């Protein structure tokens, strides 16, 4: 594990152990964040701790080469038809991040989406590198997601999502899946395994395979 300084570099992600912790330190500058995502690395740490950089093995993805990259249940189809949701893109990026920061997560007492995160990713959004999908009900934001777009790699790096209404985050994800599939993207990076992502259709691939796409 490397301790980062002001120099803009990372060790190769293949040198990280399976759990993925590759390096500590550095900053959340636009330049470092872009280098990280383009290298298959992402930041994740608790507020108040040093910045930690990860590249786990295996990697969780939504494989857009599959006929059905995401599992669409009967109840989700009903929500699409009957709940009166409207889906938009890139209209409320910072607000989406703020909602994601407030999500209560199992076995986590705090969030990694602190003010430094929000400020840095908002800058990425202003430059066109970070994007969001929003779901509205009666003109109120009720769900969404955000992440880093790598159009030259045909990869979208999903960061977080939230919901305040039934199936709203799933509808945001489905919109993203369908949009990226049409554009010929390879996959959505979902980073680490969890049961919820698995239930939505995400699968694990070896880090070595993941890195070949980058």
TrEMBL record:
Coiled coil: none
Key words of the record: Acyltransferase, Cytoplasm, Transferase
EC number: 2.3.2.6
Enzyme class: transferase
Record keyword Transferase present: yes
InterPro entries: Acyl_CoA_acyltransferase, Leu/Phe-tRNA_Trfase, Leu/Phe-tRNA_Trfase_C, Leu/Phe-tRNA_Trfase_N
Compartments, record wording: Cytoplasm
NCBIfam families documented for this protein: aat (TIGR00667)
Family: Belongs to the L/F-transferase family.
Role noted for this protein: Functions in the N-end rule pathway of protein degradation where it conjugates Leu, Phe and, less efficiently, Met from aminoacyl-tRNAs to the N-termini of proteins containing an N-terminal arginine or lysine.
Name of this protein: Leucyl/phenylalanyl-tRNA--protein transferase
């Amino acid at each position: 594990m490397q301790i980062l300084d002001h120099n803009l570099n990372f060790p190769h992600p293949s040198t990280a152990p399976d759990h993925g912790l590759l390096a500590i330190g550095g900053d959340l500058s636009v330049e470092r964040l872009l280098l990280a995502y383009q290298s298959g690395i992402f930041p994740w740490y608790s507020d108040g701790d040093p910045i930690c950089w990860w590249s786990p093995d295996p990697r969780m993805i939504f494989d857009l080469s599959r006929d059905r990259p995401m599992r669409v249940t009967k109840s989700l189809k009903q929500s699409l038809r009957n709940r009166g949701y409207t889906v938009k893109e890139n209209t409320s990026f910072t607000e989406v991040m703020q909602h994601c920061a407030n999500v209560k997560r199992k076995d986590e007492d705090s969030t990694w989406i602190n003010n430094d995160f929000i400020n840095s990713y908002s800058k990425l959004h202003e430059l066109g590198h970070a994007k969001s999908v929003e779901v509205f009900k009666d003109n109120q934001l009720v769900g969404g997601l955000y992440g880093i777009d790598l159009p030259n790699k045909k990869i979208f790096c999903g960061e977080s999502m939230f919901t305040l209404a039934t199936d709203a985050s799933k509808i945001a994800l489905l919109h993203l899946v369908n949009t990226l599939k049409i554009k010929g993207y390879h996959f959505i990076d979902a980073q680490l395994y969890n049961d919820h992502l698995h239930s939505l259709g995400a699968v694990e691939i070896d880090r070595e395979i993941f890195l070949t796409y980058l």
